[in-house]
Design brief:
about 475 residues, mainly alpha, 22 helices, about 75% helix
């Protein structure tokens, strides 16, 4: 096998990691490295159409790449590389892009009207029953927070909400600041659920369509349950070990950006999309299957009705809708564009035969599907740790999983599921991730110290996940 292309691809991976560690813009790095690899592949005379499976994509999407010479089914001309970017936006990722934007808009809106805070405030009240057992109270935050993360799928957003509500409770119970921050960040370690952009993209990789998100969610739950139990046990002993000197400082936090006066019934609003998606699904035997975008819009209009009856001011309610549109725009510039540039990066790796070389080496070393699955899971974990973004890591390497699964004649789900969870786990031990920076800043502790608290539980959780899923 010719290893010229794969070696070049490996050099680009090292270059990308180096640039990301130097805090270069992730979108630009992934975009230009992907285009550069595709250009090199073209100059080397590789069959890019075949390697990227463009013919299959065109049949599936009913579109074609028309080159400057009038031919179809080719990406051999320089202009076609840019047509490929347009194709990714307009055709390949159009549905999931709209889905992610509606999720972003809905999350922004429920934060604006105080519904997120109402939900967090409601579910955190049971912690007060454990005044005599602060360490137990601390680890109980993990499953509670993970349930909240399903409804509020923003790691930094949920982290800030928990810092404003749960953190003071834990401090007053006698939990140290570092222990409190560590368990709060652990709540975002398992990104799952139909409201998660990463989960919807994972469902698309696993099944060919994000419409089966509820079925994919059921698999996520089965894998997440044992990991959560492991997290609770390991965090309990890890934080107890690190807390040799107790920090009894009482901290009262306030977040003026949240309208904490929202009615308690608003706690229902963040849960509405999840309820609708489960109720109108094949799992519940419903003849009507609801997609995530529709569930978000239905929930938005119900939230607007709540706001009207609460404020009795139609003008104010209409103006609040701007928050939804702004949220859609913000998620577009951050997550949607990241999906596109990460796909281009993955396409660059494919065009240089990187995956074929990886499979060739795996077979030569005696690896089977299990071995390559473990390698890909660890690779995503480390990438998320370096990039500080689970989305960036998963969207970069996730598209490679269906191709690998096909080569080994196994279901793509077998690779996608652990890779999906490994991405969010890696982010939780990254000192440059938004959630760690934000929460440590509020708690006035070092992000590196939080990473020290998180690294052992997350590594144990990763090992348990690999053993549980693959063995």
């Amino acid at each position: 096998m010719d290893f010229t292309g794969p070696i070049i691809a490996f050099v680009f991976i090292i270059l990308v990691i180096t640039l990301l560690l130097k805090r270069y813009n992730a979108h630009a790095v992934l975009l230009f490295s992907g285009l550069a690899m595709m250009l090199i592949s073209w100059l080397l005379g590789y069959d890019i159409d075949s390697l990227l499976q463009l013919e299959n994509l065109q049949k599936k999407m009913k579109v074609g790449f028309k080159s400057t010479d009038g031919s179809v089914n080719t990406i051999s001309n320089l202009l076609d590389f840019f047509k490929y970017i347009v194709f990714l936006f307009q055709i390949k990722h159009a549905k999931v892009c709209i889905l992610i934007m509606t999720i972003g808009g809905f999350v922004s809106y429920i934060n604006k009207i105080g519904a997120s805070y109402s939900l967090v405030s409601l579910v955190s009240k049971p912690l007060n029953f454990f005044k005599k057992y602060p360490n137990i109270a601390a680890v109980l935050v993990i499953p509670i927070g993970q349930l909240l993360f399903i409804c509020i799928p923003s790691a930094a957003g949920l982290g800030l909400l928990l810092m404003a509500s749960v953190f003071p409770i834990l401090i007053n119970l006698g939990v140290s600041r570092l222990s409190a921050v560590s368990v709060i960040t652990a709540c975002t370690a398992l990104g799952m659920g139909p409201a998660s952009a990463m989960s919807n993209k994972a469902a698309e990789f696993a099944y060919g369509s994000s419409d089966q998100i509820i079925e994919y969610f059921s698999h996520q739950i089965q894998l997440a349950l044992p990991i959560t139990i492991v997290f609770m046990l390991v965090y309990y002993f890890t934080n107890k070990y690190f807390d040799k000197e107790r920090d009894e400082e009482k901290i009262n936090l306030s977040d003026n950006s949240l309208e904490k006066s929202a009615p308690k019934i608003y706690a229902l609003i963040p849960v509405l999309p999840l309820f609708l998606l489960i109720y109108f699904s094949k799992i519940m035997g419903s003849s009507l299957v609801l997609d995530t975008s529709s569930a978000m819009f239905i929930s938005l209009f119900i939230a607007l009705i709540f706001e009207f009856f609460n404020k009795r001011n139609i003008k104010s309610v209409f103006e609040s809708l701007n928050t939804f549109w702004l949220g859609m725009g913000n998620i577009f510039k951050s997550v949607v564009t990241l999906i596109i540039v990460a796909d281009i990066f993955a396409s660059g790796l494919l065009s240089l035969n990187f995956i074929n070389a990886l499979l060739f080496l795996s077979e030569s070393l005696g690896f089977v599907a299990l071995g390559i699955g473990v390698v890909m899971t660890i690779l995503i974990f480390l990438s998320a740790m370096i990039m500080g973004s689970g989305n960036a890591a998963f969207f970069s390497f996730g598209p490679l999983a269906p191709e690998i699964a096909q080569k080994f004649d196994v279901q793509a789900l077998e690779f996608i599921l652990p890779m999906n969870l490994a991405a969010s786990m890696g982010r939780t031990v990254s000192p440059v991730s938004g959630v760690l920076i934000a929460t440590s800043e509020i708690a006035k502790v070092s992000a590196i110290q939080v990473v020290r608290r998180n690294i052992i539980p997350l590594l144990v959780g990763l090992i348990i996940m690999i053993l549980y899923h693959f063995i």
